[in-house]
Amino acid sequence: MIKAVLFDLDGVLTVDSTGSKSIIDYITKVTGVDVGTFTNAYRKHNYQLLYGHVTHTQIWGTICEEVGRQIDIQVLFDSFIHTPMDSDMLNLAMELKQKGYYIGLITDNKQDRVDYILSHHHLESLFDTVLISAALQSGKDKDLIFDEVIKKIPVQFEECVFIDNKDSNLIIPAKKGMSAIYYDDRLRDLSGLKSKLLALEVKL
Fold this sequence. Notes:
- The chain is of the alpha/beta class.
- It has helices spanning 9-13, 19-31, 35-43, 46-50, 56-67, 73-81, 87-98, 111-120, 133-136, 144-152, 171-176, 190-199; strands at 4-7, 102-107, 129-132, 160-164, 179-182.
- It contains twelve helices and five strands.
- Strands 3-2-1-4-5 form a five-stranded parallel beta sheet, sandwiched between helices.
- The longest helix has 13 residues, at 19-31.
């Protein structure tokens, strides 16, 4: 029996497929900096940001140098809270919470960005556990982030379903016994997702 529904952030609870896309789209639109130039400068640091080896504050000056323009770091922070959210998916998560399911967030992401998003949208109380690659210095291609789930909430792997927009992110949880659902962030077929949850006897 499923007791916990675990969501990825970008591409599932948000509209854009990745957090980097949301950041780059917002900053280049607001500042007028060339998209290609900023993308190249930002993506150089993306791996280290995702796995907590550096923070945005530490590398922001370097990014500004690489794009040839001093951009107030507040623009970066604003990009976090302007991430386009999927209100229907969030409503689904809230409805599941009300029905008694544990709700988790598992994301390969930057700590500051997730903190801003959760705070801005008042989502802290929605999640029973929030697991971020930057905090753990380990992502969804390793066991650790999924092992943390059953340390944080009283469930077994077989009692969890994990929803992600990348097939490769579903390999480890499936091996551990979780039910794994691929969600296509381009189609955004919420009714199809609900059908898959119903097939797992999740109450909607």
